[in-house]
Amino acid sequence: MAARRGLRNPKLWRDTGEAYLYLLPAFFVMSLFTFYPFINAIILSFQEVSLVARVDGELVPFYRQYVGLSNFQVLFNDRHFIQALTQTSLYVGISVPLTLGLAVLLATALNQALRLRPFFRLAYFIPYITPVVALAMVWTWIYHDRVGLLNYLLQLFGLSRIRWLNDPAFALPSIILFSILRYVGYQSLILLAGMQNIDRTYYEAARVDGATPLRTWRHITLPLLTPQLFFVFLISLMGAYRIFDEVFILFAGTAGPLGSARTIVIYLYQQAFVNFRFGRAAAASVVLFGIIFVLALFQITVTQRRVHYDQ
Amino acid sequence: MASISLRNVTKTFGGNVQAVHDMSLEIAHGEIVCLLGPSGCGKTTTLRLVAGFEGPTAGELWIGDRLVSSSRTLVPPARRNLGMVFQDYAVWPHKNVLDNVGYPLKVRKMSRSRIRKRATEATALVGLEGLEKRYPEQLSGGQQQRVALARALVAEPEALLLDEPLSNLDAKLREKMRFEIMDLHQRLGLTLVYVTHDQAEAMVLSDWMVVMNRGKAVQVGTPWEIYRSPSSPFVADFIGLANFLPAQLVERNGQQGIAEIPAAGSQRVECSLASEPSGSLPVPGVLFVRPEDVELSSEGEADIEGTVTRATFLGARLDLRVDVGGAEWRAEAPPGADIAQGQAIGVKAQRAIFFEKEEQTDGETADA
Predict the structure, then answer these.
(1) Per-domain residue ranges of chain A
(2) CA of A302 to nearest chain B CA: how many angstroms apart?
(3) Is the pLDDT of residue B365 over 50?
(4) Most confidently modeled of A25-34, A111-120, B320-329, B353-362?
(5) In degrees rounded to 5, what are phi and psi of residue B354?
(6) pTM to 2 decimals?
(7) Residue B368 reports pLDDT greater than 60
């Protein structure tokens, strides 16, 4: 053992100093683009911002004034924000479990000895790496009233057309369908990787015992897949609350018919960059942060007890 | 009755990789048989054929009076009434000990209380009472392997298949578990097929054993037969320590003969013949002598003399390397023997087997 340990070891200090030196560039960039905006947004949520204000007879641009919790008060009395909150939660509550469930089934299918597996892997991955703007452009056509693919198919089966993007009842389902198809492939590939990591002998032991494929799937595959399920669920839950791009393109920057496509970030965007109410927008972002933060905590503490990591 | 019978079983993978070649074995009920060989020799494939994870390309496999595998039929593993223990335990990490052990019964739709009772019994049988609620990550490797053993036994199989079950354990525990497995075997009276690459394990456990190399059973016999009378240089080399001394068979009398060792001043050694010599005398080959069969004597007392190049103390014995005219002999002496490096010493092969030259160069030579 070295004679000098802990804080009195000069080598430790040297190594630590060196490590910090390497971390410095990343820290600088993150400070500028992550930490500073993050802290500033929190401060901003307690302020009211005037684009131009006359203070003591002088014009001051971007004037900030502390207003306490009034931004939050206004927010929770704004029916548009409440609408955004409930609709986003509805979207998350439906699309995340549905996507994950489908992804598990897809992964199970892909995990069979399957011809053309590389093809399917690629096919499922493409939607995830395609820029969402490009995808959304295609989907605006798919959902189009008169020339869209979906309505064409509906009519082919003798059903009446649906005004996907213009009917308040179908705005949210349209977003959900789009996002399921966008993420299901990617999620299933993560789960597939997890499944293929499960040791073959676990299955063989179950085979000797006479477990049917369905039982094996329930009793062995799923429990041993919980780390990946947990990861995918957590990531997509937090991602889904931040949904913006696809809605922005599909509904051309609006909140949809009667605000039926208004999500939290759409609300935030409109407050900040259409109405220039930066304080209120910042308050909305703090609420969003709070939701995601609580979800993350909840996930980590509650779910971890049921997660099985293979040694 | 769970006798296991392999009849000319061949398993080919991907059209040209012959993992098991024309294997025939008759394992009687209640016997312990070890399949022993270097890695890649086909022993695990043989076990997997018995288990039913693989189907044979040709040949038949019978358990009791049931045909379970042939090129046309393949009874699934679960319907063979076998238990299986894997090298890396395959104990499910998300189930506790009792749930792991009870799983085969749960699959058989047994009532909850009976599962509990029998799983508890099986857990106790392998010496894990008190640990029923533990999860595998809270157990040592040896304990996990006991869980696997209990799980394999809980459904009262007629035969137990073990695939290198002790390879991941440390030496002390391995030895302890060997005897526990023997003990279990005696109490339960089931047929045991045991795959290992560890010759000591095979020697301890087997009623008889099968030495395999390159997909073939190169020798079948009791540990004693295989150790004392290996049928080929490969077996001789694989089991225990061996001296192979280049020699010539110069006289022959039935299964006995006399060989000359050129490196030791053409000294003549009595030997038995592994096989019928193919040509006329003198026949070139190698003389196989176990280190413990090398008789040592003081300088000047023996016909052959050499120099001790290394004397290594191994606790129970002294391991010696003796240079005899350029050839190295391994020999043994009692731990307290007064033998030092550089000392001249007399050597005499007490018991030797002569192998013909081409036997060493054919497909059965140890190279793994």
Answers:
(1) 2-66, 71-306
(2) 17
(3) no
(4) A25-34
(5) -100, 125
(6) 0.78
(7) no
Question: What was the ipTM of the complex prediction?
Answer: 0.79
Q: Does B107 touch chain A (CB under 8 A)?
A: yes
Q: Do B77 and A206 touch (CB under 8 A)?
A: no
- What is the residue whose two structure tokens read 């192979």? B244
From chain A, the residues in CB contact with B79 under 8 A are 210
The whole-angstrom distance between A120's CA and the closest CA on chain B is 25
CATH number attached to the domain at A71-306 = 1.10.3720.10
Given a cut of 50, whether residue A2 has pLDDT beyond it is: no
B82 touches chain A (CB under 8 A): yes
Asked if A210 and B92 come within 8 Å (Cβ–Cβ), the reply is no
> What was the pLDDT predicted at A1?
45
**What is the per-residue pLDDT across B248-306, written as a single tens digit (0 to 9) for each?**
888 888 888 888 888 767 778 888 888 887 777 888 889 899 999 988 888 777 777 88
Closest approach of B199 to chain A, Cα-based (Å): 25
Which chain B residue has its CA at the smallest distance from A306's CA?
A: B94
Judged by CB atoms closer than 8 Å, whether chains meet at B92 and A223 is answered as yes
Q: Is-contact B332 B318, C-beta < 8 A?
A: yes
